[in-house]
Here is the input.
Amino acid sequence: MPGTRKLGRTSSHRMAMLRAMVTFLLENGKIETTVTRAKEVRAMTEKMITTAKTNDLHSKRQIFSFVTKEDVAKKLFDEIAPKYQDTKGGYTRIVKIGPRRGDAAEMAIIELV
Here is the structure.
């Protein structure tokens, strides 16, 4: 099935949630969430890092319009993107950690490699 996962939310709520999760992942290096959310966050995060690798005004404006914290966007350009300069993708790793206790949702840890 092509396209994005809806995650049971309206498009604006989904985008706000993904922006927050991508920002948190870039800030802390890893987050714990459900597997389906982790897969969506991975796609967005990889696009952000790839965009940040071309360090020009256009890419900066694109990143600043998506990442919710200014200091995280600076960290993306100054620390994270240069680390992956020679890599052509695969900046994140998803590790499944089993079901959640409350509703048995499959949980995972997504982290920057």
User: Anything to note?
Assistant: The radius of gyration is 14 Å. The longest strand covers residues 92-99. The mean pLDDT is 95.
